[in-house]
Amino acid sequence: MKTISALLGHTQLQLTTDLYMHVTKESLFEGVEQYEKRIQVG
Asked: Does this model's pTM top 0.70?
């Protein structure tokens, strides 16, 4: 979780957990796919 928090630019882990701990597995995989596409383009 700490790595994800850093990748998102969050300075505190609590922010990441508050925003994303409710994410379903399906939406998490979709988010990762979108993130990977963005970093491949950039």
From this structure: no
